[in-house]
Amino acid sequence: MLKRSLFHFGRFIQWVPQILSRPENFRMYWRETMRQMEQIGLGSFLIVFLISIFIGAVTAVQFAYQLTGFTIPRYYVGYIVRDMTLIEMAPTITCLVLAGKVGSNIAAEIGGMQQKEHVAAMEIMGVNTSSFLVLPRLIACIVMVPILVCIASIVSMIGAYLGSVPTGMFTSDEFIRGLRAFFDSYHVVMMLVKALVFGIVLCLVSCYQGYYVKNGSVELGKSSTQAVVISNILILLSDYLIAVLLT
Amino acid sequence: MIRIENIKKSFGEKEVLKGLNLEFHKGKNNLIIGRSGAGKTVLLKILVGLLQPTSGTVWYDDVDFTKLGKRDLREVRMKVGMLFQGSALFDSMTVAENIRFPMDMFSTKTKKEKDMRVDLCLERVELEGANDKYPGELSGGMQKRVGIARSIVLEPKYLFCDEPNSGLDPKTSLVIDQLISSITVENNITTVINTHDMNSVMEIGDNIALLSDGHAVWQGNKAEVLTTENQTLQDFIFASPFLLKLRDSFVKD
Question: Phi-psi bin for B141: left (phi > 0), alpha (psi -120 to 50), beta?
Fold first, then answer.
């Protein structure tokens, strides 16, 4: 297990310079990056929207329940929901979901191309496939994942409002007062750092799993699953490390 | 011309190629034949640089292909076209986009020039008007022809074909063989074809090498196939009693 992990880590480290080498044709890379941005960004919008709205609603309801009976002012729920969303829920939950949706898709797409000899065909044409297949996806993730996380945080707070105010848990004024209270912009920075790191992690892990897939549909399925599992573990691990480093 | 010298390739303990020495001539259809597992695909992958040999040298004219740096390797590869067994057409692209891909990547031609070249290549493989179709909408033979069109779009000096007839009916196989052969002669390119299709051997085999157990056990042309005494070749080509009888009657005549 350790030997295998070290093997993959070593191969990954050797692979990175190939990914970052100079593109053969900037226009083709740009076109591919735009395509990936559309696929990763727009393609994930609905699922991120739905999950965020419910997570926000549940967070508000749960905290309102937890704080019942304490002398803490009710508007604090809005404040807790906001910080909870910015620091943890929006970046982490969104990226765990994206690891499942985008990550498995990337691994399956590149893996399928590898198995159908598309990658070999490009390689023989003289294309640096490591770069052409990974760099546009990496740039797309670096740009789109933070945008999706920002959207998730806003939608989550709207979800919290919709899940608690109409049901009479607290008034609209109380909730909005809570959202505005004790705001620290550093939390937004933390959210964006997390989104960026998680985006890079989920993209590179998934691309690696797809690029080095072995032959056969079973292997393709396995690499797709591995992409999700490993991305999730590394996202949670980096979440902890960022929390330690930035707080 | 491509020449290989003492090519060996091992995967772990298993030695697949055991010191091959072969020459593939310019303007000829050079066929690599052999039973499944004889090392044909491994040799082809070494020839195009998808695999590195354990030892030995591959010469592209006077260039040692195995010792090239990344940039030089890319330059040689731009002179190489390859037709894959499964065609390897990009599913998400149309026929025209597939053919144009190598030009988009490496050529400085204008869009109009590229479109003209695509049309010319499609005309060459007799698929005029298929520009906007997707690979999924084409038959196996048509996909192969698009694959050929893509492989010749940059006017290669070397053309490699991996099992060009696999999965095709005999008539379509013949069309593909004749297409590859005429492109080879017209453009005076070095074509290496990996096959175990006996129709191809007898139809276009200008220079045939038989691989067996990692060695090149026979080399000759299609005429020599019929008269050779080499037992391995006879066992391979005339595998059925029917073919053996057919050969005997042909030789007698």
Answer: alpha
